[in-house]
């Protein structure tokens, strides 16, 4: 990772990074409770689900969690603003 030049403060974190972190927190904590409520219905309670809506709910929760996890891990790659050449420190060569 590169550090900002000593004469410039670090750029403030973007709001979208905090929204992404909030979404990951919501999916991580509320998701299992939602899945438990979804699995409580039907003829048979527990795992494996007996209704298609239970399978769909479990799949959606897994996809949401996976998407948030990948986005949180790669947020620095796709949220960074490109720096101008004049802001970069000159390398001595």
Describe the structure.
The chain crosses the membrane at residues 17-40, 55-79. Keywords: Membrane, Transmembrane, Transmembrane helix. The longest helix is centred in the C-terminal third of the chain and has 28 residues, at 52-79. This protein is mainly alpha-helical and 93 residues long. The two termini are 21 Å apart. α1 (15-39) runs antiparallel to α2. The protein is built from two helices and no strands. It has a domain at 15-77. It has helices at 15-39, 52-79. Helices cover 57% and strands 0% of the residues.
How would you concisely characterize the structure shown here?
The chain crosses the membrane at residues 17-40, 55-79. With 93 residues, this protein is an all-alpha fold.
Shape: rod-shaped
Low-confidence stretches: none
Alpha-beta classification: mainly alpha
Strand content: under 5%
The number of strands is 0
Percent of residues in helical segments?
55-70%
Mean pLDDT: 78
Roughly how many Å apart are the termini? 21 Å
Largest sheet: none
Order of helices and strands: HH
> For this entry, what is the oligomeric state of its chains?
single chain
Structure annotation, total helices? 2
Radius of gyration, whole Å: 21 Å
Topology:
Blueprint: H1 15-39, H2 52-79
Helix pairs in contact: 1-2
Keywords: Membrane, Transmembrane, Transmembrane helix
Transmembrane segments: 17-40, 55-79
């Amino acid at each position: 990772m590169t550090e900002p030049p000593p004469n410039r403060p670090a750029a403030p974190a973007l709001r979208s990074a905090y929204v992404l972190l909030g979404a990951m927190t919501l999916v991580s904590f509320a998701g299992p409770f939602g899945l438990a409520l979804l699995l409580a219905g039907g003829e048979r309670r527990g795992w494996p689900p007996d209704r298609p809506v239970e399978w769909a709910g479990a799949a959606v929760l897994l996809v949401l969690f996976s998407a948030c996890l990948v986005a949180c891990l790669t947020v620095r790659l796709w949220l960074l603003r490109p720096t101008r050449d004049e802001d970069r420190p000159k390398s001595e060569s």
